[in-house]
Write a structure and sequence with these properties.
The complex is a heterodimer of chains A (209) and B (221). Chain A has 209 residues and is an alpha+beta fold. Chain A is built from 7 helices and 6 strands. Chain A has helices spanning 89-93, 103-108, 116-122, 125-132, 156-171, 176-180, 191-195, and strands spanning 2-4, 23-33, 41-49, 62-82, 109-113, 139-152. In chain A, strands 1, 2, 3, 4, 5 and 6 form a 6-stranded antiparallel β-sheet that branches. In chain A, strand 2 (23-33) and strand 3 (41-49) form a beta hairpin. In chain A, 30% of the residues are buried. With 221 residues, chain B is mostly helical. In chain B, 68% of the residues lie in helices and 0% in strands. The longest helix of chain B is centred in the first third of the chain and has 59 residues, at 2-60. Chain B starts with a helix and ends in a 43-residue tail after the last helix. Classes of the chains: A alpha+beta (209), B mainly alpha (221). Chain A binds chain B through residues 95, 98-101, 116-117, 120-121, 124, 129-138, 149, 151-152, 154-155, 157-158, 160-162, 164-165, 168, 171-172, 174-176, 179-180, and chain B through 24, 31, 35, 38, 127, 130-131, 133-134, 137-138, 141-142, 144-145, 196-197, 199-206, 210-217, 220.
Chain lengths: 209, 221
């Protein structure tokens, strides 16, 4: 059963540029699955560069429908961009292109990753087949502990389909990723200790390993 | 005179492309070596787990001597194997078969299956197998990219000039993945970990004329 998320979406911690300080953005129509406790949500978002804030109207404003999926690990950035219908010459010639075992997946998505090893670990065959079931316009971004599915703004019925797709993909994440890329300590007061390399299993303890 | 400059420019361009291609070959080969080191690490991790596993099983099934000795022998042979990735993959085959046989024997000993030490070893071995598979995929992906460049034009010219040859894949038999530790099934009365929700089939492509993520999968059972 789906329900509107009265609490809204906390975008402040989302590690994606569209929610960063350089943009003005707003969230609308947040929906979540009432039975899910993992925090998966879908919502409409509008955003524009902060420099255009004083301009009349909403020229340059981008409207998207996004699904946010919290993940149980901390990982480098990985982006799956749908390839253009006419082919992607630039992507084909890129020195750092990543191609995996499934030809259909390689033809469907352009993989952009800060860490090739993470891309291979995250995109096993089961996950690739799940992602190939998405609508062509849907992009996937994974960064730190969050996965973001984005699509051009969708009608309400299609939003529920995106939410369900996000939930399914969440369960297809290979378990090995969490052991290779363990989660970072909770954000907040102790984040600076993690960033300084003083991470320990007890982030609130005084002892620094 | 103009033609001279054009020819000179083309030669410089070809030289730059050649240097870039050569450096890329070197980078890819280094990446292959690094990714092989990851496989080696996971294989060693597996080898380190096996003696404890054998001793735990021996405590409950000491008369299964042949099976236990097979595992020990196969482990020693695999651990001492050196050579090309293909040769090392071949050495892993008997070890995997022996492990598979060992876990088949374990099925006959419910007390052993419930032993916390055994369960922990089984979980660690499963984790190691997953990590090994990931490392193998990463290695093979790098080899695939490298081999493609060795054969493609114009990088084939650089490869032939400087002796870059195709690398070997690390292929293991399907039995490796199938021979992983069996999933523990505690049945209706067990007190094991909560089962992961059965994932629904992936969403299919969108309906004609509609822009959306497609038909939703059926909810999990």
């Amino acid at each position: 059963m789906f329900e509107p998320d009265g609490g809204g979406v906390e975008t402040g911690w989302l590690p994606f540029p569209m929610f960063g300080p350089g943009t003005e953005h707003g969230v609308e129509n947040a929906i979540r699955n009432a039975g899910d406790t993992d925090g998966t949500q879908v919502f409409d978002v509008w955003f524009r560069p902060a420099a255009e804030r004083d301009e009349p109207g909403r020229a340059g404003t981008t409207h998207l429908t996004c699904a946010v999926v919290p993940l149980p690990f901390g990982c480098p950035r990985l982006e799956l961009q749908p390839r253009q219908p006419g082919g992607d010459l630039v992507g084909a010639l890129a020195a750092d292109r990543i191609e995996l075992e499934l030809d259909g997946f390689n033809e469907r998505f352009r993989i952009v990753a800060d860490d090739r090893r993470f891309a291979v670990a995250f995109l096993d065959q089961r996950m690739m087949r799940s992602l190939m079931g998405l609508q062509p316009e849907v992009s996937v971004i994974v960064n730190e502990d969050t996965m973001l599915l984005t699509a051009p703004q969708l009608p309400p019925g299609e939003m529920l389909l995106l939410l369900e797709a996000a939930r399914v993909i969440r369960h297809r994440v290979p378990p090995v990723v969490a052991t290779l890329y363990p989660p970072r300590p909770s954000k907040g007061p102790h984040e600076d200790r993690w960033l300084q390399g003083h991470w320990s299993p007890d982030p609130i303890g005084d002892e620094v390993p | 005179m103009v033609w001279l400059w054009i020819v000179l420019g083309l030669l410089v361009l070809v030289a730059i492309v050649g240097v870039v291609s050569y450096n890329r070959f070197v980078s890819q080969r280094t990446l292959i070596r690094d990714s092989w080191a990851n496989i080696d690490t996971e294989l060693k991790r597996r080898y380190d787990l096996i003696p404890n596993l054998v001793e735990t099983v021996r405590g409950y099934a000491s008369h299964e001597r042949e099976v236990l000795e097979n595992v020990t022998r196969a482990r020693a042979a695999a651990a001492s194997a050196t050579g090309s990735p293909a040769e090392q993959a071949a050495a892993e085959g008997p070890l995997v078969a022996a492990l598979r046989q060992l876990f088949a024997v374990v099925e006959n000993y419910p007390d052993l299956k419930a032993n916390q030490g055994f369960l922990q070893l089984q979980a660690e071995l499963t984790n190691t197998e997953d990590r090994l598979q990931t490392a193998r995929r990463f290695y093979n992906a790098n080899v695939r990219d490298f081999n493609a460049r060795v054969k493609q034009f114009p990088s084939v010219l650089v490869a032939n000039m400087f002796g870059f040859k195709e690398e070997e894949f690390f292929e293991v038999e399907d039995a490796v993945r199938e021979a992983g530790p069996p999933k523990v099934d505690f049945g209706a009365g067990g007190s094991g970990p909560a089962a992961e929700p059965t994932p629904a089939p992936p969403p299919s492509g969108g309906s004609s004329g509609a822009a959306g993520p497609g038909t939703p999968p059926p909810p999990p059972s």
